[in-house]
Amino acid sequence: MNPFTSIGLAGTVAAYVLSSGVCHAQQGTPAPSPAAASSPAAVNASDGKESKEAKKVVEQPKPPEPRFKIYGWIEGGITGNPDAPIDNHNFGHLFTDRANEPLLNQLSVVGERALDPNATGFDWGFKVWLMYGSDARYTKSVGFLDLVTDERVQPDIPEFYASAHIPIPSTNGLDLKLGKYADPESAETIDPRQNVFYSHSYIFNFGVPFNDLGALGTLHVNKYLDVYAGINRGVNMAFSDNNSSLAFEGGFGLNLLDGNLTSVAITHDGPEDTLNNHDWRYLNDITTTWKATKNFTVINDLNLIYDTSGSGHWGGGVAQYFTYSLFDWMQIGLRGEIFRDSSGFYVAQFRANNDFIHFERGDNVFNPEFPVDPSNLGGGNTTYFEVTGGVTFKPNLPKPIAGLLIRPEVRYDRALTRFNPYNQNTKEDQWTLGLDLVLEF
After folding, report:
1. Neighbour-count burial for 306-319, b at 16+ CB within 10 Å, e otherwise
2. Is 136 helix (H, G, I), strand (E, B) or coil?
3. Same domain, residue pair 293 and 357
4. Domain match, 12 and 75 both
């Protein structure tokens, strides 16, 4: 046979076999598009070799995260004081007030269905936060779990509320919150995961409410402007009130530079003094956060407070924060603060575990069996200065551990006036060395 005839016949047979195979394959699965067939991914896949392009072709989309989540954390720490005060207290501190003694600050469990931040229609949610720890001595609200125990470690429910997103034409909608919730003022929070340091600023400890029971609305006017307004029972009040009066809370928020610059200005106004529903207290706070770069963040907290009782009591100050992420697992931070208490009305030390809540309840007025503890100390007409430096380590750990924060810090406090508030009113300054661990799950 002619060689060329043999080659032609072989080619015809091969073409028939290949075309039959392709037709058979088309009956089982759709054929790829010409572009996909000629792509490097298709060539590599046909060769049986994996590549990034091939993985992209076959990768399935991730399922959406569940709306309802249960999570929590454990926080414990210690604050060393070289002066070793006889009463074992660090003046100017609340949540880290015990000197040279370890604290179980929080064992927290949260069940939450958060609102969808991208929702355009109606949405709903809720949050319940259960806490057990020494922080509850100061987070408790009057009339709710306030005197269940006088131990250092106590139970509390810092938040339990229902929320809803309501669409409003020509706006980005209205978010409503009804129940007990953390107050939106200040650069710091009760949740330790959101804070730069273990210890808290004077502004957070003495210049803003910790929580409210009431209703708070946030109108998202547009992507740049939010407006806040709400009514609550008063500073740290729940199902009882020391003066049977309501308080107003409102303000606005700015979202600029694609979210890299935000500012929230809030005022909380109403009668707060025991058996006094005509003298008002005004708690004003502006928190501005600028994410200057991917790793560098600047936070400013301005605070101004005034109580009209008596001849009037002014207070407030400024706290400045800087944080820089050296690595994904390591961040350094610095906080400097000045806080003025014009008449010794706001800053105080509470000796016994329930002295703070007794004071808020007005028990020294309502209940003679709870007189004012003479070991509770004030700082007088004083301007306070504090500077804190620290490091946050965030090592990667396997599941079910969601995260770990290790935060050593060094803090220096000083009275800039003639009073000596520290070490049982004997010193003008105070050094503390703090360390806490926050284990997330």
Report:
1. bbeeeeebebbbbb
2. helix
3. yes
4. no
Q: Are residues 90 and 209 in the same domain?
A: yes
User: Which structure tokens are listed for 161?
Assistant: 């509320």
Six-digit token string for 181 = 């919730």
Does residue 179 sit within a domain? yes
Cα separation, 267 vs 303, in Å, equals: 10
Quick one: which H or E segment has residue 180? Answer: strand 174-182
Full pLDDT tens readout for the chain, 441 residues: 444 344 343 344 333 333 344 333 344 444 444 334 444 344 344 455 455 555 555 667 778 888 999 999 999 999 999 999 999 999 999 999 999 999 999 999 999 999 999 999 999 999 999 999 999 999 999 999 999 999 999 999 999 999 999 999 999 999 999 999 999 999 999 999 999 999 999 999 999 999 999 999 999 999 999 999 999 999 999 999 999 999 999 999 999 999 999 999 999 999 999 999 999 999 999 999 999 999 999 999 999 999 999 999 999 999 999 999 999 999 999 999 999 999 999 999 999 999 999 999 988 877 777 777 777 899 999 999 999 999 999 999 998 899 999 999 999 999 999 999 999 999 999 999 999 999 999
> Is residue 108 located within the same domain as residue 169?
yes
Distance CA 415, CA 46 (A): 76
Q: How many CB atoms lie within 10 A of CB 69?
A: 11
Q: What is the CATH number of the domain that holds 182?
A: 2.40.160.10
Cα-trace Rg, the chain: 30
**Residue 241 placed within a domain:** yes
Structural domain for 18, as ranges: 3-58
User: Do 40 and 80 fall into the same domain?
Assistant: no
**Is the Cα torsion angle 249, 251, 257, 258 positive or negative in sign?**
positive
Backbone angles phi, psi at 56, to 5 degrees: -65, -35
Regarding whether 103 and 25 lie in a shared domain, the answer is no
Number of domains in the chain: 2
Residues 297 and 402 in one domain: yes
Give the predicted TM-score (pTM) of the model.
0.85
